[in-house]
What we know:
By secondary structure, the protein is an alpha+beta fold. The protein is built from eleven helices and 13 strands. Belongs to the D-alanine--D-alanine ligase family.
Amino acid sequence: MQTRFGKVAVLMGGASAEREVSLMSGKAVLAALQGAGVDAHAFDPADTDLHVLKDEGYDRAFLALHGRGGEDGTVQGMLEMLGIPYTGSGVMASAVSMDKWRTKLVWLAAGLPTPRFHIIDETSDWAAVAADLGLPIFVKPVHEGSSMGATKVTDASQLADAWALAARFDTLVIAEEFIEGQELTIPFLGDEVLPVVRIVAPGGNYDYQNKYFTDDTQYFCPSGLPAAQEAELQALMLRAARVLACRGWGRGDLILTADGKPYLLEMNTTPGMTGHSLVPMSARVAGYDFTALCLSILEKARLG
C-alpha cells in the first residue's frame, strides 16, 4: 500500500455532456492507482455532494471529470474551499481554457498563432461570416470539449443549422476559420513536454465518434516530424500552456500547415485517459506506462 498520497478520490462522471467519456477515463485511472497500491476510490459528483470528500477524510483528488462542472474551474474552486489538493490546473486556468473564445483572446494578446474566428448567434449575417473566414468553417460551442456539438460547414447555407446545433450545448458559439494541415496534439506533464502525436482521422473528421468509439483514426507517435520542428512545436505548446497558467498536466491541440505554420486550436486541462486517449499514447513513447503516468499526475496534485 502506498501511503504517501493518503486517501484519494478519483472524480469521474459528473453531469456534463462528456459524462460517458469521463466514466471511461476515471475507471481506467482508478484501476491503475489501486493496482499500484494507492488507497483510491471512485467519486461521482453527480451522485454525491463534494463536501463529503472532507467528511470522509480524502487527502487528494484525481480529477477525471471532462467538460463543464469538472474542467471549468467550478470543482477546482470547491476543492480549494475544502482544502483538498487536486490534479491539473487551478481555478483560473481551468475556467479560461474551457472557454475557447477567451483562450484565443489570451493567445492573441501574447502573440501566439490561432485561427481567425467570429462569435455568432441567430442574428449573424451568415454570408458575411463565410466571406470573411472562407470555407470550410468549424462551428462549435465555446464551452464544450470532445467535439460535442461541432460541425464542419462547407457552404454558407449550412451555418444557421450548425449554429442551432452548437447552441443546444452552449449559449456562446464560435465559428472558426478552417486551416488545412496536419492535426497534432502535444501533452505536457509538469514542466516536461511529451512527444507530439499526429492524428489522421477518416475524411479528416476527428469528431466525437472517431475520438472515442472507432478504431479508424490513425495516430502516429513518434509523429514523423523532423526533430527540430517537433522541438519548436513543443516549445510553442509549453508557452501556450504557461500563458494560460496551466499546471500539472494537460494537452494542447494545433494544426500544422504544409508550409510549416502552426495554429493553436485549444487547451485541454483534463484530457481523456481512455483506451483511445492521446496523453497515455504520448507518455508511453516518453517512457511512462499508464500506471506511472497516473502516479506522476497524482504526485503533482496541489492547492492554489
